[in-house]
Amino acid sequence: MSLNILGIIGGGQLGSMIxxxxxxxxxxxxxxxxxxxxxxxxxxDEFLFGEYNNINLINEFTSKVDLVTFEFENIPFExxxxxxxxxxxxxxPSVNRLIQHRLAEKDFINKLNIRTTQYVxxxxxxxxxxxxxxxxxxxxxxxxxxxxxxxxxxxDINDLENLDIDFSKxxxxxxxxxxxxxISIVITRFDHQKYEIYEPIENIHEDQILKFSKIPxxxxxKILNQSKIWATQISEELNYIGTLCVEFFIDRNENLYxxxxxxxxxxxxxxxxxxxxxxxxxxxxxxxxxxxxxxINKISNAEMINIIGDQINLYRNKKYNSNEFFxxxxxxDIKDKRKMGHLxxxx
Length: 347
Ligand code: ADP
Ligand code: MG
Hints:
By secondary structure, the protein is α+β, with helices and mostly antiparallel strands. About 25% of the residues lie in helices and about 30% in strands. Strands 9, 10, 11, 12, 13, 14, 15, 16 and 17 form a nine-stranded antiparallel sheet that branches. It has a four-stranded parallel sheet with strand order 3-2-1-4, sandwiched between helices. A four-stranded antiparallel sheet has the order 5-8-6-7, covered by helices on one side.
């Protein structure tokens, strides 16, 4: 495919990093985002601001690009579907529709005989009383959650009285897993049985937000192999093109579970920018644009720390060693719990 202009929906740090990877490969980018301050406008060739359901804007965006991708999964399916009638959208909108919905996503994973936490659909508060064997658990909105948003930890059914939960929304209740650790697999699928798969990354969350990632992960060989097999199976089953991330839980008895799938580049994969010859972002662009697949090689072990909220001020004024790589997302406002940048250290 001779491709000149890549459209990216979403203008956060992931969009910025996809745009930078495209630039390196001589591909121009147009970012479409509903935030006028989107940081990715500083990294792309053209920026379109407006709501994701604005049909005029969708048409303008579509007419200007050769191919479209996205940086996050919560874009309205109708928007992706409209664009896909005229220009290819990768990953396919149908993948997005499946993964946007936590229940459909978990049903899909279980159909592949891949283990997840035990879960049930909760459509009204009264249903909670019948499923108390899943407590302690986490109640999660079926759609639009990220970084722990829309999630409630329920230890006991009486907790419901103290939590102000909006039951006009639909939820999924998941049994709480006693975590030993969490890992993720970032994989880029180019075509049938053609992948670049990164080694498992170990992740530490604080307040349900990713705080820290590192390679190598402190896991046994069996879990290492199983996580790679499951991530490959999921991407093959989805007929996926591009970079995808599978998040896993490991419990205290060394059982592996798939937590969720992110049909996009992922925060835990930021260390691939410095620790590998080809990053998750470059691989994503290579796969969707049908460019050459390059075998990935690890340059170094690495740790990545997410810089959240006003911590960014400290990092902006620091001096760094040659093995340290500071990324400032250049967001105009500092907000509590907002990912503002990250630091990767090669170790
Ligand atoms: P998000 O879509 O916000 O990333 P996740 O479902 O991945 O939501 O949850 C965020 C984090 O919360 C997880 O990475 C994990 O640390 C914790 N968590 C979520 N569900 C469970 C569970 N069932 N058992 C234990 N920890 C959980
Ligand atoms: Mg998650």
